[in-house]
Amino acid sequence: MDRSQKEELVASMRALFDETSMVVVTHYSGLTVVEMEDLRGQMREAGAGFKVTKNRLTRLALEGTDFQGLTDMFTGPTGIAYSNDLVAAAKVAVNFAKKNDKLVILGGALGKEILDVDDVKALSTLPSLDESRAKLVGLLNAPAIKIAGVLQAPAGQLARVISAHAEQGEAA
Predict the structure, then answer these.
(1) What distances in angstroms separate CA 136 from CA 90, 132, 148, one per listed residue?
(2) Strand, helix or coil at 110?
(3) Do residues 143 and 97 both lie within one domain?
(4) Structural domain of 167
(5) Do residue 26 and residue 101 come from a single domain?
C-alpha cells in the first residue's frame, strides 16, 4: 500500500467516524471468512457495518474525532462495528460474540463517551430505534382503537336488538 492509498484510507476512516454515532472495537482472531461474512451480513441487516482495520492508520483517523479516546484499544487483529443507531452495532456484536468466542469485544464509544465491555453489553440490551418507534406507535394507537371499540358497541347492540325483534315477528 503506497502513501496515497494510506492517506485515502485514513480520510475515509475519518469520514466514517464523523458520520457514525456508535463504535464497538473488537478482536476477531480466528474467525473464518464464512463467519466474518455472517457477521457482516447481520450488521447490514441491523443497519450497521463491520470493518477490519489497520491499527496505525485507524489511530491516525481517530485524531480529532469524538472517538479519539478509543486509540489505546487498537492493538492486535482489530475490527470495528459502527452504526448511527445507538444500539444496533452493540446488539449485533454482543449477540455474535455470545455464539462465537473468537470475536472478543474490547469496548466502544457512544459519541465522546468511552464504553468498557460491560457498558457495551448493557447497551446491547436496550431496544433498537425501530423497536422503540414500534412501541411508541402501538401506545399512540391503543387509545384510538379502544375509542373505536366503545363507539361501535352501542351500534352493535342496537343491531342485535332489532334483529331479535325481527326474528320474533317472523316466528309469530
Answers:
(1) 22, 6, 19
(2) strand
(3) no
(4) 127-172
(5) yes
Identify whether the C-beta of residue 103 lies closer than 8 Å to the C-beta of residue 38: no
33 and 80 both lie in a single domain: yes
Q: Residue 130 pLDDT > 90, yes or no?
A: no
Q: Are 104 and 62 in a shared domain?
A: yes
Between 95 and 162, the more confident residue is 95
User: In the structure grid, which three cell numbers stand for residue 80, read together?
Assistant: 470495528
Shared-domain flag, residues 120 and 102: yes
pLDDT at 23: 93
Domain count, the chain: 2
State whether 14 and 89 are in the same domain. Answer: yes
pLDDT at residue 33, as a whole number? 92
Matching residue, cell 456508535: 22
Q: DSSP for 115-170?
A: E-HHHHHHHHTSPPHHHHHHHHHHHHHHHHHHHHHHHHHHHHHHHHHHHHHHHHHH
Residues 68 and 151 in one domain: no
From 45-49, 135-139, 146-150, the region with the lowest mean pLDDT: 146-150
pLDDT, one tens digit per residue, over 45-54 is 999 999 999 9
Q: Alpha-carbon distance 43 to 152, whole Å? A: 46
Whether 79 shows a pLDDT value over 90: the answer reads yes
